[in-house]
Amino acid sequence: MIDQVGIHERAEFFAKRSIKKQSKLGALYTCVSMCDLTTLEGSDTVGKVQQLCQKAIRPAPPTMLSQYFNGNKIEPLPSVAAVCVYPTMVPVAVKALKGTDIKIASVATAFPSGQAPFEIKSQDTKFAINHGANEIDMVINRGAFLSGKYSVVFDEIKEISKICAGKAHLKVILETGEIGSYDKIRLASEIAMEAGADFIKTSTGKMQPAATVPVTLVMLQAISDFYDKTGKKIGMKPAGGIRSAKEAIQYLVMVNETLGEQWLSSELFRFGASSLLNDLLRQIFKEISGSYYYEKSFSLD
Fold first, then answer.
1. From 55, 103, 171, 201, active-site residue
2. Is residue 108 within a helix (H) or strand (E), and if so which, with residue range?
3. pTM of the full predicted structure?
4. Which of 149, 213, 219, 287 has the lowest CB atom count within 10 Å?
5. Which segments of the chain have a pLDDT < 50?
6. Burial 51-73, CB ≥16 within 10 A → b, else e
7. Which residue range is the domain that position 272 belongs to?
């Protein structure tokens, strides 16, 4: 049983943590490099995805950068970790991101509901991989999970992991806001990891509550215990609801103190929060220039 009081006390502790000024810029850069920029709307167009990919490569406009970075001993801004799109938009992202190290992620398995026959989920995944996706964000069958049909959930993740094997990393979305209790979130995390997930992810971003500090802490502790048991490192992706740089840094502190420095890279930790990037940029430019830029100077996300 999860100690809810203990989880909340620990979460409140992280919410009060801050880092020293000389370390803040490095933390902000790290957060940028861990962002997955996402567009998952029915209104997505080729142009919108292309624009998102350009922002992924160059998070801030080059003209804005030049006055601070040229000739100064300041590290250039990193690119983000990945761009996440629907399967039909994967070819657009592949073309736009050619020659970069940015990952191409695609949602699959009847995102966001997960309510489709498994044959459709399988085809969804294969389509994305065949067109160039190297990360798959699958949603679990919450209907089966909430009905106690845990073997169905396990088997579906296992089969999708087989499709991904050697071709794409598998990020399994629990949709914690629907699952409910911390005990069930812990159980779903364990099922996903045992079935072959490379990452576990809180949410689709389509419902609230999405990522929260207590929920993420429960999942990080599950990852820690799984690593102790198996020696396998599983990544973590809180998604949805993280909008400020201050919150993002608190998540980094939590990851460091729960799992260690090994997890402080985009290979093992991501933020699924496109709206977060602009505030990270604002805070970076505040640290460098001493003044804030207007948020929409970076983009109209």
1. 201
2. strand 103-108
3. 0.92
4. 149
5. none
6. bbbebbeebbeeeebeeebeeee
7. 4-297
pLDDT of 13 reads 80
Q: Which DSSP string do the residues of 143-182 spell out, in sequence order?
A: HHHHTT-HHHHHHHHHHHHHHHTTT-EEEEE--HHHH-SH
Catalytic annotation on 73? no
> What is the model's pLDDT at position 50?
97
For 265, the token pair is: 């890279």
Give the closest residue to 56 by CA, choosing from 75, 30, 35. Answer: 35
Query: Which residue in 36, 76, 43, 56 sits closest to 211, CA to CA?
Result: 36
Domain count of the fold of the chain: 1
- Asked if 102 and 141 count as a contact pair (C-beta separation under 8 A), the reply is no
Amino acid letter at 97? L
- Rounded CA-CA distance 114/168 in Å is 19
Q: What's the confidence (pLDDT) of residue 44?
A: 95
Catalytic (active site) residue 167: no
Name the region of 47 (left: φ>0; alpha: ψ -120 to 50; beta: rest). Answer: alpha
Q: Alpha carbon of 18 to those of 9, 37, 166, 222, 252: distances in Å?
A: 17, 25, 39, 25, 11
Residues 6+ apart with CB under 8 A from 51: none
pLDDT value for 207: 83
Of 124, 137, 198, 279, the active-site residue reads 137
Give the pLDDT confidence score for residue 12 in this predicted structure. Answer: 83
The C-alpha R_g of the chain, in whole angstroms, comes to: 19
Q: How far apart are CA 211 and CA 273, in angstroms?
A: 10
Read off the CATH number of the domain in which 44 is found. 3.20.20.70
Q: Is 237 a catalytic residue?
A: yes
Catalytic residue among 103, 121, 171, 237: 237
Q: Please provide the size of the chain in residues.
A: 301
Distances (CA, A) of 206 to 69, 81, 110, 111: 37, 21, 13, 10
